[in-house]
Specification:
By secondary structure, the protein is of the alpha+beta class. It has a domain of 152 residues: Electron Transport, Fmn-binding Protein, Chain A (Pnp Oxidase, Chain A). Strand 7 and strand 8 form a beta hairpin. Helix 5 packs across helix 6. The longest helix has 20 residues. The two termini are 36 Å apart.
């Protein structure tokens, strides 16, 4: 019996030694082999995740992780922190909602008078970071931040709830206001303006796509021995590099 009191034959002893030696080889030869443990118990080496599990296309891995997050996150797994910077390099960050992702990049929408939009115009690079606590995972995206087409923005805006469409017209996003009553008055104004008719997309409201140069995947491991895989875009596709935690 392994891990307790008992006896085993030569064949069993050989199997135990073989398994132990295999774990030691994994620990020394594979830097992604991590320790997993339950509080109060002796750590054991896990080889369940490795570079061999990492697809060549980062979007494939993102889709997999995103789908798993949707199953466990209690609210808005599409929430993501987006960081921009002004013309002097001073950063700002806020939470937005991911509204589309494909091989071109990651899309969010905003009022074009907002700080993030203004900064994306003068300094057209941005980063975003997803953090799914229930999955103990993060995904970081870095790259150029470019406007989506009018057609793409119109198509998305058409899917929004009517109240959200009215809100887009009423909000002077990031601008000072006298109080909540001012905002509510503007909501009433545009509600009356559009009546029961269609609410078009405001000309001052659209989206941006972060076209990533780098997509990094992070997964929690005990003792801060985390897993990190970084995809770097090249002319021929993507390269994958493992990073120290």
């Amino acid at each position: 019996m392994v891990g307790g009191v008992g006896h085993c034959g030569e064949s069993d002893e050989h199997a135990v030694r073989s398994q132990r030696d295999a774990r030691r080889r994994v620990a020394s030869d594979r830097p992604w082999a991590m320790f997993k443990h339950t509080r109060g118990q002796r750590p054991e080496i896990s080889i369940s995740l490795c570079l061999m599990d990492t697809p060549a296309d980062p979007y494939e891995l993102f889709d997999r992780w995103f789908a798993e997050a949707k199953e466990t996150e209690p609210r808005v797994p599409e929430a993501v922190a987006v960081a921009t910077a002004d013309s002097q390099g001073r950063p700002s960050v806020r939470q937005v909602l991911l509204k589309a992702v494909d091989s071109r990049g990651f899309v969010f929408y905003t009022n074009l008078g907002s700080r993030k939009a203004s900064e994306a115009v003068v300094n057209p690079f941005a980063a975003m970071n997803f953090h799914w606590k229930t999955q103990s995972r993060q995904v970081q995206v870095r790259g150029a931040c470019v406007p989506v087409s009018n057609e793409e923005a119109d198509a998305y805006f058409a899917t929004r709830a009517r109240a959200s469409k009215i809100g887009a017209w009423a909000s002077k996003q990031s601008q000072p206001m006298e109080g909540r009553g001012e905002f509510e008055s503007r909501i009433a104004k545009y509600t009356a303006r559009f009546g029961l008719g269609d609410v078009p997309r405001p000309p001052f409201w659209s989206g941006f796509r972060i076209e990533p140069d780098v997509i990094e995947f992070w997964e929690d491991r005990s003792f801060r021995l985390h897993l990190r895989h970084a995809y770097q875009r090249t002319e021929s596709g993507w390269t994958i590099t493992e990073l120290y935690p």
